[in-house]
Amino acid sequence: MSNSFPSGSFPTGGFGARMDPDTMWQAFEQLRSTFEKKVGSRMGRGDVRAAVLSLLTEKPMHGYQIIREIEERSGGSWKPSAGSVYPTLQLLADEGLITAEESNGRKTYALTDAGREVAASEASAPWQTEGTTGERRTTTSPGALPKAGVELAQAAAQVHRTGTPQQVQEAVTVLEEARRRLYSILAEG
């Protein structure tokens, strides 16, 4: 993240130091956008295929329903583009794994018997992983920690901007404790 912040705009002196709140807010906004860019939402072609097959085992859907469901089930960390979903749907149709029925100007896709067999043989949907007991569970999205960190930083900036000196000091204490607890999580593993 070197050179990510304009010269002189990155907060220094810790959260207790007095500084221009607008400068701090700009730094947090840049940090947030950096995390959003780094987290990314690209998955492999096979992942789109597995996701589509998994969703269609539940019910027939149209393309944008599939996109929304993938985004929702991945906790917002993955939103495939129409440019990856629709070609995958066409490929699955060409393979005889799904059928498309047009209704009200929209194509609704459903699994064929062969598609159900293939979907059943898939280990799990890309947004799921095996738990330690062998059951399926939803994974934490890769963007969850950076998002939580940015939201915490935004709350700290708000306290800094509008809080009393006592509230700012209480926030500093909370943040210092949070930092210690995060390092203790790493020390356990």
Describe the structure.
The protein is mainly α. The chain folds into two domains: 94 residues, Winged helix-like DNA-binding domain superfamily/Winged helix DNA-binding domain (Arc Repressor Mutant, subunit A); 47 residues. Strands 1-3-2 form a three-stranded antiparallel beta sheet. The longest helix has 24 residues. The protein is elongated. The two termini are 26 Å apart. The N terminus is likely disordered.
Quick structural summary:
By secondary structure, this protein is mainly alpha-helical. 57% of the residues lie in helices and 11% in strands. It folds into two domains: 45-138, Arc Repressor Mutant, subunit A; 143-189.
Feature tags:
two-stranded antiparallel sheet; Arc Repressor Mutant, subunit A; 11% strand; elongated; 2 domains; 189 residues; mainly alpha; disordered N terminus; single chain; 7 helices
